[in-house]
């Protein structure tokens, strides 16, 4: 099988500013543990405060970019993955591009001249992460960039697409273009619920994209919020996964499969009106470094097998492997080689 450019991701490239913080820091900036939000004015001073911490690390991030980098690492085939998003014309943008290219990803960034590269504060407390994203240039992606011949060529070359729900806040128009192309050409389109606020405040563009989704990823918190927003009156993750999988589809070529992770609890997979549970790899608490990127890594591992047309059970196994590797390291990073067998 030809793997060159087989998987394309689009999203918000962010430079993660990751540091260990204390409860006072979270209280000061009114941050909930294990949540993901967009930065407001009150959060802006925290970036400098974190940059001054001795434990600070800078890592190329953004949900989709994390997943694509992990898929690339698992595939070990240079250029198997491509990625688009918007960065600023600055040193952070250059750093991120170098980081992604070194990882083997074919990045085609839109370079915005008016805003700095987006950053994400990753506040780590007791291994749990809280994310505060300051999108800046990531918010400036234009559908015109996607339509450029050299970029649309990446869309035409790919057979699988993955876009995190966070991109709904930036360019729903770009998402629709790719989704419609996938449906018309018998390709696989997947998205992620990504965060409770996406399900709540970006319901309309999410619902517009949903009929095109062949795979829907998410975690148990996002699934429950999705259920609440749609008045389903159930907190049962298995039931919610099933309902999402049965949402009407734009094209009948592929069925929809819903994949919901639940931290240390089993992964829920809903397809064909049935639910299967897959155990995750247990990890002793003392080996947990931080959970940042765990969900993204799961998706990356999953997609690395999906593009090879492996069975769903094998995709889940690879997802669990990848997230298990990532949570034992700082940020969404991984060793040079994978020992996934």
UniProtKB/TrEMBL annotation:
Record keywords, A-Z: ATP-binding, Host-virus interaction, Kinase, Magnesium, Nucleotide-binding, Purine salvage, Transferase
One of the Pfam families matching this protein, by short name: PfkB
Domain (Carbohydrate kinase PfkB) ranges: 30-338
E.C. no: 2.7.1.20
Pathway connected to this protein: Purine metabolism; AMP biosynthesis via salvage pathway; AMP from adenosine: step 1/1
GO molecular function: adenosine kinase activity; ATP binding
Cofactor(s) required for function per UniProt: Mg(2+)
Reaction(s) catalysed (UniProt annotation): adenosine + ATP = AMP + ADP + H(+)
GO biological process: adenosine salvage; AMP salvage
Active site location: 296 (proton acceptor)
Function: ATP dependent phosphorylation of adenosine and other related nucleoside analogs to monophosphate derivatives. Essential to sustain methyl recycling.
Family: Belongs to the carbohydrate kinase PfkB family.
Protein name as annotated: Adenosine kinase
Source organism: Solanum tuberosum (Potato)
